[in-house]
């Protein structure tokens, strides 16, 4: 089923509110007083809404298969909860929740009882809840529902931005230097910081752990030191290149043919691998000293969920299937299979334990000025490559039985990226 952005945002808002109600009830019972445990100040817990929207987009085809629907919802919800915990920890360098004392927990962020609960709730939302809430949505007359949904989305975006600013501000507001920083910024942004101050106090009450001062990660002196934007961009570039080379060699060995495995029209880059490397680095950077089995398990689950979502989103956006594992045992909808999930786990161990430290050191050896100039040249190139590739893929799908090119950009794309060229770049793609 195809959805409009307004319909998806409606689901996001509804389930974010339901999530907030659940979290507020749990926090209030635990603290014996009303507690707003949402990241934003308003009555929204965004992670719940994001989870249901992702499930609706990627798992709705499993709605008639309750067993696989439960598994899919459980895995996706667990991965989203773990990623959310990791990201929040990266913001403040402390855990916002901790399941370490619960049985069958992993990393303190996820545990089996909650994963089973999320599986049931997710499946119930997809099978029954979404139908009901879309029915309610249809009862709201236009343009009232558009004004309502988009007005709340704008409010939620502003609220989340202020809450994020408050979290970052808390990192620098402790100690003598922090007090001087706050005094200076208060003079410049008194009204804005009054709002931030309120959000800070709310967060300190709901999550006392974030009051502690954050440790310093980044040090001055080298280009792209630590795990910041420039380091991640270069890792994305390297991961995209290595992924394309790896898949090309793998196809040669297994299928006996050389074929393009690139995601982009210019250059040997597999962006699925590039984003996977960035995601693995961000989420596993602090766990790089943990046992291999820890990294392998996270890589297996995260890689499988990531590949499944990439497959579904690629089909939704471009109307094409870029890979099909239907003939491989233990596959799920042809989008992912158990064997390749294990490959993701092995790749995660090899990357974090073996390759990342070396690539990180090599990137940091780039002279600062050269690194910044080269980074932005490559950022511009990769952005253009992504835009042209997406445009070419969209036009490729439109040409299949669609109307002839009638605008300038369509004619340019058709001239430079005709069907033969696109088939050469994407030999395994199939129209939906």
Automatic annotation (TrEMBL):
Pfam families in the record: ABC_trans_CmpB
InterPro entries for the chain: CmpB_TMEM229 (IPR010540)
Keywords: Membrane, Transmembrane, Transmembrane helix
Protein name: ABC transporter permease
TM region(s), chain numbering: 6-26, 38-55, 67-88, 109-128, 148-170, 232-259, 265-285, 297-323, 335-352, 373-394
Organismal lineage: Bacteria, Bacillati, Bacillota, Clostridia, Lachnospirales
């Amino acid at each position: 089923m195809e959805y409009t952005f307004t319909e998806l945002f409606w689901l996001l808002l509804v389930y974010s509110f339901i999530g907030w109600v659940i979290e507020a009830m749990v926090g209030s019972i635990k603290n014996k007083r009303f507690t707003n445990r949402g990241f934003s100040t308003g009555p929204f817990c965004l992670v719940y809404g994001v989870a249901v929207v992702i499930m609706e987009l990627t798992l709705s085809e499993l709605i008639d298969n309750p067993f696989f629907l439960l598994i899919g919802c459980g895995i996706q919800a667990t991965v989203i909860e773990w990623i959310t915990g990791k990201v929040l920890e990266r913001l403040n360098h402390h855990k916002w929740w901790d399941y370490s004392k619960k049985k069958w927990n992993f990393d303190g962020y996820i545990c089996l009882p909650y994963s089973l609960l999320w599986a049931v709730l997710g499946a119930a939302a997809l099978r029954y809840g979404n139908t009901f809430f879309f029915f309610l949505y249809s009862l709201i007359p236009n343009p009232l529902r558009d004004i309502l949904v988009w007005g709340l989305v704008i409010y939620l975006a502003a609220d989340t931005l202020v809450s994020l600013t408050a979290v970052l501000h808390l990192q620098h507001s402790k100690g003598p230097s922090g007090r001087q920083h706050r005094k200076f910024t208060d003079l410049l942004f008194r009204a804005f910081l009054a709002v931030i101050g309120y959000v800070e106090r709310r967060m300190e009450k709901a999550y006392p752990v974030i009051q502690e001062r954050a440790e310093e990660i980044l040090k001055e002196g080298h280009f792209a030191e630590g795990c910041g934007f420039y380091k991640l961009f270069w890792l994305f570039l390297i991961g995209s290149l290595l992924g394309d080379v790896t898949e090309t060699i793998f196809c040669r060995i297994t299928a006996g043919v050389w074929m393009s495995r690139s995601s982009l029209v210019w250059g040997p880059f597999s962006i699925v691998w590039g984003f996977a490397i960035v995601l693995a680095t961000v989420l596993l950077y602090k766990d790089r000293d943990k046992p291999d089995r820890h990294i392998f398990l996270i890589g297996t689950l995260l890689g499988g969920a990531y590949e499944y979502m990439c497959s579904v989103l690629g089909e939704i956006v471009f109307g094409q299937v870029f890979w099909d594992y239907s003939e491989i045992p233990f596959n799920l909808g042809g989008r992912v299979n158990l064997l390749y999930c294990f490959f993701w786990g092995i790749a995660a161990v090899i990357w974090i334990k073996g390759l990342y430290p070396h690539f990180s050191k090599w990137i940091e050896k780039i002279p600062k000025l050269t690194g910044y100039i080269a980074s932005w040249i490559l950022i511009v190139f990769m952005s253009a490559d992504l835009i042209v590739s997406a445009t070419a893929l969209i036009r490729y799908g439109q040409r299949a039985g669609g109307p002839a090119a009638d605008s300038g950009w369509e004619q340019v794309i058709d001239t430079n990226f005709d069907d033969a060229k696109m088939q050469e770049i994407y030999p395994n793609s199939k129209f939906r």
